[in-house]
Structure formats: structure tokens, C-alpha cells
Design brief:
454 residues; Aspartate Aminotransferase, domain 1; Aspartate Aminotransferase, domain 2; 7-stranded mixed sheet; 4-stranded mixed sheet; 16 helices; binds pyridoxal-5'-phosphate; PyrdxlP-dep_Trfase; PyrdxlP-dep_Trfase_major
Length: 454
Amino acid sequence: MLSNLAARDVETLIHPYTNLALVRETGPLVLERGHGVWVYDTDGRPYLEGMAGLWCTALGYSNEELVEAARDQMARLPFSHLFSGRSHDPAIELAETLKEIAPIPVSKVFFTSSGSEANDTQVKLTWYLNNALGRPRKKKIIAQRKGYHGVTVASASLTGLPANHADWDLPLPGFLHAACPHHYRGAEAGESEEAFSARLAAELDAFIQREDPDTVAAFIAEPVMGAGGAIVPPKGYFAAIQPVLARYDIRFIADEVICGFGRLGTWFGAEAMGVRPHSLSFAKAVTSAYMPLGGVTVEEPLYQAMLDESRKIGTFGHGTTYSGHPVACAVAIKALEIYRRDRIVEGAAEKAPHFQRRLSALAEHPLVGEARGVGLIGGLEIVADKASKRQYDPKAGVAARCVAFAQGEGLIVRFLAGDRIALCPPLVIAPDEIDTLFDRLGRALDRTAEWIRQ
Ligand code: PLP
């Protein structure tokens, strides 16, 4: 019997990324409030939020300073836009701060309202750049299988997960996918991480050659893959592929939507993973998700092309009503101030060894084939047989069942396709809360193993 709110929900809402048939039966988990790393349902039951919402509430819930920043900006100038030469101080100040903390040279910042829009913008800017440079054939974009970049038509085309393609007539032509850099699944027997990286780089080179380098414009990758399963690339991966991209003058975009702002114990994932991209996409933790905000960094040659085109045709024809929304920018400014003042990124780096130790220990569990992570992100790969890495029939829904058991234990973690479970707590999680998270997850895995035996 569903609660009143749950019953009203299933009669009225389409849930994003959800098994709609299942949620109709079980009803959704209706949350009412949050505090620190805890969220509470409508019966007042607490859950440790082991996913920072959707990889985003890095500063936890009920941060009064972020609320105040939004309230002040709402009262002062709740809306203005950046079209046709208008501006406002929150957008200017935020862009200045982002330029300061970015790990690469940034000429300008362009704001969006989400990560999907940020990556959609990256696609358009890549095409725009090559048109401006008189290279109209150089348009193809290479992403990675299991990479996640969003759900707009272009960003879903970048995404390398079947759920984003089947039924949707995607990817669009010209969106290509290279191998997923997952050593556990992709390496040959006895192949070291470094050798696997070198092989992937050689395969990427051959792939670009086959496609014709004059037609390949950009490559996009997450420093650590989130929705694909918290997949950490093998040692030397980015060092091996970057010269290949440089050889063919391919624009390299780092999707920092999850990894940005401290997740890997560095300001950006690029720093932790040795990535030297031309441009970054960001969203989520830039406001600790208190307001929707995303964006992309624009490198100097691209900005020069924009200027030239504007001189010729009069307008840079891209942007939405909410690009640089003042309330979202004001909240982001405050969030970045807190990250700096409270040493949130350094704190994440200090807590990471404890988090990763507890995560690695789960690899001993009979159901866990691989436990992997870096910083405060982690993933588990559920297997039926550790030696052969064989997985359960996807219809059995083993990881989904484990996530449901975790919820029963008062822990929110996320089930991902391929029987994977993701962990991504708020960066402000305390060491004893890390222990609570893993104790509860361990019990959920035990209950799952019992359920399988029955
Ligand atoms: N890129 C990455 C790496 C993501 O994880 C996500 C969302 O989870 C996106 C892009 C899309 O962001 P949004 O859901 O804000 O559109």
C-alpha cells in the first residue's frame, strides 16, 4: 500500500532515468528534508546520502550560507541575462574565480544550466570552431563507451550507454565511441595497466586513421567515469592518448561534471588523472547543487574565432535565457568561497585513504568482483563468479536488489547498468560517517548474498 504522496506521485510524474514499471509498484522514496550528509523521508526516517544526491551535493544539506547567498541575490536581482551586452556582477565574479582555479589556461567562461547543456555547447563550439577555421569536414566527435555526458540530443549522442541510444535513434551520425578504459573488463589476461593503456592509445590512433583525421574534431572523456560505473582509467591512460589527439589536432574536452570541485581530492579531476584538455565542462558541485548551473571553459583560439565570426555576422548565436542565472552564480560564488575557506578539497584528499581502504576491503565479499575508486568516489562490480568475472543475468537485478537492501539499512547508494553500484558521498562526510556508510553497505551485500541463496 503506497503512502498518499507516493500514490499521487505515480499518478502524476515521469521520473528521469527510472524503471517506471517498478516505481509504479514500489512507489518512490519521498524525501522531505536534509541535514549534513543525511536526508529524511516523510516519516522522518534518516538515510546517509551516499551519492551526494546525484554526485553533486558536495557541501551536504542545509548549508545556511548557500541559502543566504540565494536569498540575498533573489532579493537584489532575481533575474537578469547576459544577452546582447547585458551583464551582472555574480556572473562576472564567478567567471573570474573559475578562471583562477581552472587547471588549464582559460580565456572565457560560458554558463549553462546543466551538464547536458554544457556538453551540448561543447559539441556546437567544436563545430563552430572548425567552420570558423575553414575546416568544415572536421566535425566527428569521439567519446568513450560507458562514458556519460548527458541527455540532450547531442550530449546523449556523446554518452556511451545503451539506455541513451536504443529507442532514441541515437547517436547522431558523426558521434563515435572508443573503447572504455576499464582494465578489469577490457584487459587481456596478464596485461598490465600500462600495457593496456598503450594498446588503447594505439587502437585510438588506428580508429582515427580509419575515420580520416581530417574529419575528427574532438575527443571527450570524464577523468574518472561516473555513471558508467565509477571506472578509474588504467595507469598511463591519459598520458598515452593525449599525444594521439595532439598529432591529429583534435580538441580534447574533459567532462568535469562529476570530478570537478574536489571529488578526486583535487580541484579538478584533470589534475588527479594527468589530463591536459583544451576545455572543461562543469556543473553539479559548482553550486553544491543548490541551484542548477553548468558551463564550459573557452580557450583563447576558440574565443578569437568567436570574435572574428561576430565581426563578420554580428552575433554569437548560442545561449539560453538562464545562461549565467544570477541566483545560481551567486550560490556558486559562495560555494567556491566555502571550498577555499574550509579547505574542502584538501579535506577530501585527507579522507580519501580511509574511504578507499574501506572500499577496497569490500573486494573480499563473495559478490564483489572489483572495488575501485579514487578520492571520495567508488564503484563496486557485482559478479556471480570472481574467477571468470561472470555476471548475473541482468534480469535478476542483483545490484538493484543490493541498493534496495542498502536503503532498508538507511543508506542511499546508486545502482548502475552492468550490475554496478556507485558511491559518491558529500565531500563534507566525517570519518565516522564513512564507517557508517561502509558498515551499512557491507550488511546490504550480505543480505543480497542471502537473497541469492534462497
Ligand atoms: N556529464 C557527466 C560526467 C555527468 O555525470 C552528468 C550527469 O550525471 C552530465 C554530464 C549531465 O549533467 P546534467 O544531468 O546536469 O545534465
